[in-house]
Amino acid sequence: MAGRLGRAALLAIFAAGGALGAAASPSAFDLAGRYTFSFRNGDVSGAHYRTTDELVIVARDRTHAVLDIQLNFFNGHECSLTGEAVLEGSALVHRETDSLLPGEPPCTFRLWRDRGRLRWDDGDNSCKTYCGARGSFMDGGMAWSSRRPLSRAERARFLGDASQNRP
């Protein structure tokens, strides 16, 4: 009888620990990694080729990360953004203070996990200066399953490059 009670108590402790882990506060480390999506692309001449979209997120600590996103669109147009992001709720947010276009809002780029996808958006196309004519950061995403960890050397190199490019 004592053995059954002991096991029951132990199971209750593990269950409580699992519940605590499930409700743990979000972290930039939760989103860190390399995400890729390859697809058939083309141009106005009728040529077809493969391109790969890539997003790299490297956490500096629990609430800060560096991101680099490169997206490809029809006819060779691209979106490219590199910068610092801060955890706001469960999303990483890259927020610029000044606009690159007069009269336009500054770029605000958000990344978050939505079930089986890593999603991103820039609100009302606020980061359009980082995109070609056919490109946009609006309502984008990649499969969560495309996420791959970065090696320690890749992470160090990425953070080193980001530190050199700071204003």
Secondary-structure blueprint:
Elements: H1 2-22, E1 33-42, E2 48-59, E3 64-72, E4 78-88, E5 91-95, E6 108-114, E7 117-121, E8 140-143, H2 152-164
Antiparallel strand pairs: 1-2, 2-3, 3-4, 4-5, 5-6, 6-7, 7-8
Can you describe this structure?
The chain is an alpha+beta fold. It has a single domain (28-164), classed as Lipocalin, CATH 2.40.128. Helix content is 20%, strand content 38%. It has helices at 2-22, 152-164, and strands at residues 33-42, 48-59, 64-72, 78-88, 91-95, 108-114, 117-121, 140-143. An eight-stranded antiparallel sheet has the order 1-2-3-4-5-6-7-8, with helices on one face. The termini are far apart. The model is unreliable at 9-22 (pLDDT under 50).
Key words describing this protein structure:
8-stranded antiparallel sheet; alpha+beta; 2 helices; 167 residues; single chain; Lipocalin
| Tally of individual domains | 1
Structural class by SSE content: alpha+beta
Low-confidence stretches: 9-22
Radius of gyration: 20 Å
Give, in order, the helices and strands. Answer: HEEEEEEEEH
Largest sheet: 8 strands, antiparallel
Trace the largest sheet across and list its strands.
1-2-3-4-5-6-7-8
Give the % helix: 10-25%
Figure out the total of helices.
Answer: 2
What is the CATH topology classification name?
Lipocalin
Q: Approximately how much beta-strand content do the residues carry?
A: 35-45%
- Based on the structure given, which CATH architecture is correct? Beta Barrel
**Number of distinct beta strands:** 8
Mean pLDDT: 87
Shape summary: globular
Q: Alpha-carbon distance between the termini?
A: 68 Å
Query: What is the level 1 CATH name?
Result: Mainly Beta
